[in-house]
Design brief:
The complex is a heterodimer of chains A (about 500) and B (about 80). Chain A has about 500 residues and is of the alpha/beta class. Chain A is built from 15 helices and 15 strands. Classes of the chains: A alpha/beta (about 500), B mainly alpha (about 80).
């Protein structure tokens, strides 16, 4: 099968006009002043204290809650806390049901009214291919495996927790990615944090991207290796670090590093940017380093047949030393995998903390992944539709948002779309008003993003129909005018009807 | 209706002010405090401008006159 590689790499990281930055700081300034006022009132007993604080006996010890993060949490985050941790009560498909929740004391406590808000359009779940479904026909094999194996494994991989389902799944994953062998784990976060310490240790060097996920950072810190950070997706920064590492070696002894490993992700979920894989592979070959690629968001979502960024760039999977990914996003299941050469995977089977101590993946979930992967590989005949639909939806959504004049970050092909909001007051207003229009969005602020760049993050799914996307886009248009969010200085026009859709067909 | 669209525009401007200065997030008593502070600052600035505006204008006018006056004398002496 001819796989065509993308030749153009278009990413946008537009900067907002200067007045936006100034006004954002004004907003944070006012919030900080009122934060100090409220803290003063709480300390002097003029106001009831709902916050965490030290006990009487600890008042002479080092203060626990005086740093900026705690100040920010109790004075700014709590005011808009009702937009996060909202409980849902249905499958997170393209539409879902939300439990209605009200607060009587400005977000310190919540209570449920007992009603559910039905059919809220879901723009926040990582349901890229639409496998989060409850259709009994689709889940026939999963139900059968549930009858056969039950739900629990009650053991770890090395004791009695390796089932024939795991072996079948691992062979399928290896075949899907085009590598020699793979190993699956029960939890995606734990795959990173428990396996990086098995691969590197003291005396090794980790070169990690600035915006890597917490699981990679935690795994790197747990390993005890030296960590150096390079600027996000910046190859000059990475090359400089590599050259310095090879020329100067370890800090005091000047010996060569035992291993140099580069940690990157396929799609970065907060920026929507795709890693520059060809340049990284050429750098790694030149300087003899190893590459660890975390494809949590990109497996199943990019590439002509869904095999991730390796296929997106038309490269050989053997170029990447360790391919890691999760099944949580595109496959509608839970868990992660590590794939690569057989020697690597055999080493991990014996030395990984996950293999020795963590419970293995449960059989119905493994069967869900098998069915989703078979669907993607075409062994069922029902697939190519999903990827093509995801590509079309992504391009349509991004194009319309650009035309409306919003600032969007990231690559044109990534299904993760961050829309910049900047000001702290607008975060709460945006999420609440979108919920009033029956659309559920995820807004992100500090500390997950830089303090001045808060954003709303949309995850486009193959299960979204054109009508749903149009509803969302019209609501965004209206809200963008009301909240004044259209900061882009490069938008094409404000009349999208003049642009015909047929010119932007997804090409294989 | 010009009045209606004017009112809508003013309401929209007020909403923008609320969002930018985070007063959208404040509890009612905090909003009262914040607006009182802002309004009192504005009133003070306006009052100061009202008191000092005529004095400043006349001083500036006299200064300019002095500048142009001395120049006029110089050019006249050269021509002579």
């Amino acid at each position: 099968m001819e796989l065509s590689a993308k030749k153009t790499f278009i990413e946008h990281f537009e900067q907002a006009p200067m007045y936006v930055a100034v006004l954002t700081f004004v907003g944070f300034g006012v919030g900080t002043v009122f934060g100090y006022l409220r803290d003063f009132m709480r300390a002097w007993g003029l106001e009831k204290r709902n916050v965490a604080q030290e006990r009487e006996q600890q008042k002479d010890f080092v203060p626990l809650y005086q740093d900026f993060e705690n100040f920010y949490t109790r004075n700014l985050y709590v005011r808009i806390r009702d937009n996060w941790n909202r409980p849902i009560c249905s499958v997170p498909g393209p539409q879902f049901d939300l439990m209605e929740r009200v607060t009587d004391d400005y977000n310190w406590t919540f209570r449920f009214t007992g009603r559910t808000i039905k059919n809220v359009i879901n723009m926040g779940s990582y349901n890229y291919l639409g496998f989060a479904e409850t259709d009994p026909n689709a889940l026939k094999t999963v139900a059968k495996e549930l009858q056969r194996y039950g739900t629990g494994i009650c053991s770890t991989r090395q004791e009695m927790g390796t089932l024939d389902k795991h072996v079948e799944l691992e062979n399928l994953v290896a075949k899907f990615l085009g590598v020699e062998d793979a190993m699956v784990f029960g939890m995606g976060f734990a795959t990173n944090s428990m396996n990086i310490p098995a691969l590197v240790g003291k005396g090794c060097l980790i070169l990690s991207d600035e915006l890597n996920h917490t699981s990679l950072v935690l795994g790197a810190r747990l390993s005890g290796a030296t960590i150096r950070i390079f600027k996000h997706n910046n190859m000059q920064s990475l090359e400089k670090l590599l050259r310095d590492a090879i020329v100067y070696g370890q800090p005091r002894s000047r010996r060569a590093w035992r291993k140099i490993i580069i940690l990157v992700e396929g799609i970065y979920s907060m920026e929507g940017s795709i890693v520059r894989l060809p340049e990284i592979v050429s750098l790694k070959n030149k300087y003899k380093a190893y590459l660890y690629l975390d494809e949590a968001h990109s497996i199943g979502a990019v590439g002509a047949t869904g095999r991730g960024v390796v296929e997106y760039f038309g490269m050989n999977p053997n170029d990447v030393d360790v391919l890691m990914g999760t099944f949580t996003k595109s496959f509608g299941a839970a868990g992660g995998y590590i794939a690569g050469k057989k020697g690597l995977v055999d080493f991990l089977r014996t030395h990984s903390h996950s293999a020795v101590y963590a419970t293995s993946m449960c059989p119905p979930v493994a069967e869900q992944i098998i069915r989703a992967m078979k669907c993607l590989m075409g062994l069922d005949g029902t697939t190519q539709g999903k990827l093509r639909q995801l590509g079309k939806n992504t391009r349509y959504f991004r194009r319309r948002l650009h035309e409306m004049g919003f600032i969007i970050y990231g690559n044109d092909d990534s299904p993760v779309v961050p829309l910049l909001l900047y000001m702290p007051g607008k975060i709460g207003a945006f999420a609440r008003r979108m919920l009033e229009k029956n659309i559920g969005v995820v807004v992100v602020g500090f500390p997950a993003t830089p303090i001045t760049e808060s954003r709303a993050r949309f995850c486009v799914s193959a299960a979204h129909t054109r009508e749903m996307l149009d509803t969302v886009l019209n609501a965004l248009d209206e809200l963008g005018d009301f909240l004044h969010l259209k900061y882009s200085r490069y938008s094409k026009s404000s009349h999208p009807e003049l642009y015909e859709e047929t010119r932007f067909e997804f090409e294989d | 209706m010009d009045i209606k669209s004017m009112k809508n525009y003013l309401y929209w401007l007020y909403c923008q002010f609320e969002l930018i200065t985070c007063s959208y997030l404040m509890e009612p008593w905090e909003k009262v405090l914040f607006y009182t502070f802002n309004v009192s600052m504005l009133v003070m600035v306006a009052y100061t401008a009202y008191i000092f505006f005529p004095v400043h204008i006349s001083t500036a006018f006299q200064f300019c006159l002095h500048l142009f006056g001395s120049q006029h004398e110089n050019t006249v002496s050269v021509v002579k």
